[in-house]
Design a protein that fits this description.
It is built from eight helices and 15 strands. The protein is an alpha+beta fold. It has a three-stranded antiparallel β-sheet, with helices on one face. Strands 10-2-11 form a three-stranded antiparallel β-sheet, with no helix packed on it. This is SapC family protein.
Length: about 230
């Protein structure tokens, strides 16, 4: 069961935060402001929330649940999405709350959250920035996705991979932006998307899909190494 506590120096001065907890995460939600930071490293795709059916964006880091193909020693080597950076931390009624039972809070390793002076350490500042990124970015990302849907720009993407040992993987429920549909829009619609900053995000997302091949290669190499 989660152990929710309001973050404060008096109770959590000795708490240490580990970043080596990314291995089980094969998918992480991102907001629109992260697209340009994430696109050089991860496939960005859209999926639907299982309960609400609402679309959201995320990065794919593995081909099966519980296995991150891009982490090394438990941590990502490149851009770390805010959803991962803030693991164990939440916002409740405007205050930072932690789940003391979360794996992010290491017992014998990791970085302190508070300086001796009581100020936030760089580790905690990264978490605070991640929480801010998500808090400010979720609504803007929902609006971006609504504009895509208004123009029928999202389409399912078929991700089927066959590996040298005969294993196959099929990723379902993922969507990408259709460049064909985008390029077929009337000029006034394209101009509106451009002025909203959507075109830059659309091209970053569609270009990032090429990283699926990287994930497939890594998965194939690990299967071969395990034989």
């Amino acid at each position: 069961m989660p152990d929710w506590q309001m973050l404060n120096r008096a109770d959590h001065a000795a708490l240490r935060l580990s970043r080596r907890i990314d291995t089980p995460r094969h998918f992480a939600q991102i907001v629109a402001d992260e697209f340009l930071k994430a696109a050089p490293y991860y496939p960005i795709l859209f999926t639907k929330h299982p309960e609400t059916g609402a679309f959201y964006a995320g990065v794919v880091m593995g081909l099966e649940p519980g296995r991150n193909l891009l982490s090394a020693d438990g941590a990502l080597r490149d851009y770390r999405p805010a959803d991962l950076e803030r693991q164990g931390f939440f916002i409740a009624e405007g205050q930072v709350v932690i789940d003391r039972e979360h794996a992010a809070f290491a017992k014998d390793e990791g970085a302190a959250l508070f300086e001796a002076t009581g100020e936030a350490t760089p580790a905690l500042k990264r978490v605070q920035q991640a929480l801010h990124t998500l808090d400010q970015g979720l609504a803007a990302t929902d609006a971006f996705i609504r504009r895509l849907l208004d123009h029928w720009l999202l389409e399912p993407i078929d991700v089927a991979m066959q590996f040298d040992n005969g294993q196959s993987v099929q990723l379902d429920g993922l969507y990408t932006i259709s460049l064909d549909a985008l390029h077929a829009l009337p000029d006034e619609a394209v101009l509106a998307l451009f002025r909203a900053g959507d075109l830059q995000l659309a091209y970053a997302q569609t270009t990032s899909v090429r990283h699926l091949r990287t994930l497939g290669r890594i998965h194939n190499d690990r299967l071969a190494a395990a034989q």
